[in-house]
Amino acid sequence: MSTGPKQSHDNGLHPELLPPDDPDAIYHNGHRLDHAEGVSRPMRSKPEPQPRGARVHGNRPIDQAEAAGRFIAAPEHEKMHDERLWDLRQKRDREMHGIEEWEELRSLASAIKEHTLTHLDQYLEQFEANARANGIHVHWARDAAEHNRIVHGILRDHGAKSLIKSKSMLTEECGFRPYMASVGIEVVETDLGERIQQLDNEDPSHVVVPAVHKLRTDVAQVFARTIGADPNNSDVHYLAEAQREANRPLILAADAGMTGANFVVAETGTFVVCTNEGNADLSANVPKLHIASIGIEKIIPRLEHLAVFVRLLSRSALGSPMTQYTSHFRGPRQGGEMHVVLTDNGRSARLGLAEFWTSLKCIRCGACMNTCPVYRRSGGLSYGATYSGPIGLIIDPTFNAHKYSNLPFASSLNGSCTNVCPVKINIHEQIYAWRRELVKRHEVPFVKKAAMKAAGELLSRPAAYRAAIAAADFALAHLPRFVAYNGLNAWGRHRENPHPPKQTFHSWHHANRGGKQ
Ligand code: SF4
Q: Would residue 345 count as lying in a domain?
């Protein structure tokens, strides 16, 4: 792999549009990695169908492994997804190595979040007082239902029938779009990836790049179906232009705009939204009514702390030094109105969970997803939850431990997520802690529980263990294949056992070392 020397992009083009001899390009096995498929070479004539996400049946536990199996069975999608995200991870590493004090920044960010979360009430009240002084209306929502009702109330009071909205994971948590549809308000996403997902009736599959699991050909199909674009043209420039043409009139005619927030500053009563498309600025500035939907954990005490997070966020997320837009919202514009809905939705309960409260430090950069081998190969929609990847494994069960009881097992516990997390959340340790917790709560499948109990018994009796190993070796060598590889053996569905040795290590040791330890 070569990364080439660092150079400034004098021609002003986005890196993906640079020529093939771009010195900044990353190569893997002789192929250039382009995370946004910026190169518009034609793909094969018959596109591979897009694998869909997890099947959700009410409150039944999500079968992530089943959905991941379908994603892996679509090799073009799996390969593209894996390479695209690994490309982001490599770009993140390059940026990180360019900052000598990276580890100090991570520690500082973690400490600021820890301090804020342990004084949350104080900083939230400070923010509320300062925001009101700035002319912002501040609302408090206990849960998703209250959040949706409050926003609906504001829109109703203004006679608003259409809302443009930038990407916000909190509104995904709240089931905001379906709720708005049920009360007759049209919501239009302004982030390109999120709009693709909205038009395709899918949730975002990644917190930063919501349509990262789709090929260009998938997007061409979605746009052909929904906005009348050419189904055979999957050129990225054509697709982006088609969407802009379709979306811009809706944006200009909208009655209200909505954003989330990346950071909320207590001392100034202001909030900050980071995007790369400037779409949050359209949502906030085109209509006169701006509503910001904000999770209470987004608060930081002082403006000077923002610099720490802004330096970490985009580098960790996309491997770029900064988001293209870092917009500060200080109050309503002249003749307009600004509302902030501070939403709990399970956060204060999570704050009380001794082993999991530090997950509230998360700044939603997605770095843990980009590095996770399970996520990269199974796609975010296989998790069947608002949050996917490593951070999802520890947040989702706090919403519903039964429905998401399988998720903490979708990890190899390799710890890479913890290593890249810019706010130093001990992600893999929390995943492991969730496994213990789910066993305690009897939320693991019967077969797994029985197998673990049997293994525990066996491992605590050396003589029985040795006899079982000898029996297993004999069975593998002599019994028909279906005895070892059947429906009960999920592990064996995609793997082969090694050939059984002629002699166990114990018997070899006994024979050659006289049984001495
Ligand atoms: S857990 Fe850490 S790495 Fe993962 S999204 Fe949150 S801040 Fe980023």
A: yes
Q: Is residue 409 domain-resident?
A: no
Q: Is 363 in the pocket of ligand 1 (CB under 6 A)?
A: yes
CA–CA separation, 46 and 97 (whole Å):
42
Whether 421 lines ligand 1, by a CB cut-off of 6 Å, is yes
User: What's the Cα-to-Cα distance from 66 to each of 369, 378, 449, rounded to whole Å?
Assistant: 19, 10, 19
Question: Pick from 351, 367, 385: which residue ends a domain?
Answer: 351
* 504 Cα: distance to centroid of ligand 1 (angstroms): 44
- Evaluate: CB of 368 within 6 angstroms of ligand 1: yes
Question: Domain tally for the chain?
Answer: 2
Please tell me if the CB atom of residue 367 comes closer than 6 angstroms to any atom of ligand 1.
Answer: yes
Ligand 1 atom nearest to CA at 389: 4
Residue 35 has pLDDT above 70, yes or no: no
Q: What is the pLDDT of residues 322-348, one digit of tens each?
A: 999 999 999 999 999 999 999 999 999
Does 134 map to a domain? yes
Around 33, how many Cα atoms within 13 Å sit in the side-chain half-sphere?
Answer: 22
Write out the residue range of the structural domain in which residue 164 sits: 102-351
Cβ-contact 335, 286 below 8 angstroms: no
Rounded to two decimals, what is the model's pTM? 0.85
pLDDT tens for 239-258 read 999 999 999 999 999 999 99
| Residue 164 domain-assigned (yes or no) | yes
